[in-house]
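Regression test attached.
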Amino acid sequence: AQSVTQLDSHVSVSEGTPVLLRCNYSSSYSPSLFWYVQHPNKGLQLLLKYTSAATLVKGINGFEAEFKKSETSFHLTKPSAHMSDAAEYFCVVTGGSQGNLIFGKGTKLSVKP
Amino acid sequence: DSGVTQTPKHLITATGQRVTLRCSPRSGDLSVYWYQQSLDQGLQFLIQYYNGEERAKGNILERFSAQQFPDLHSELNLSSLELGDSALYFCASSVGSRAGGTYEQYFGPGTRLTVT
């Protein structure tokens, strides 16, 4: 069965410093992986996706993630945090042949001025 | 704006009642997915429809049902509501295909259901 584990429930960084949100996955086949962001009282927005092409995936707003099969990881990074990045981030894997998504429990990112 | 619309935005109802949540997918998308987000269970997949047909089921209770209409909008029906059904319900859409596969899903703003 497919699953994802987000290793931190809460990450706090200062504005201008790097962001690292960690995610490990488990999949019985070659997975498709996504990161979504949810701002307070908003819906979910797709940040980036990995679908077995390049292992380093670039997304919107300066975020990127690297797929590492040997480590079963798909960590999300950004070189320099902005205040507007404060939100909850979800690591997601596809759960079945029809593409339904399995979400991690989320990492809340706080950005201090 | 993802292009997926959901109504209503908020819904407050009493235990034992029945409600209907509505979703309109992005133009051109044939697949609709329903998800439930609650504090204790997180985000969970409920059910998927493709071009009017049910395609996949997740952790959907028997008291819940859904359908997708010929114009591709979808409705999620929740009946015999309990306090524990209070949650944010999201609809997502994707291009999808008859054979399945992985396509980006675009989420609506959600319907917040409060059961009192």
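Expected vs. actual: identical. The CA atoms of residues 36 and 46 of chain A lie 5 Å apart.
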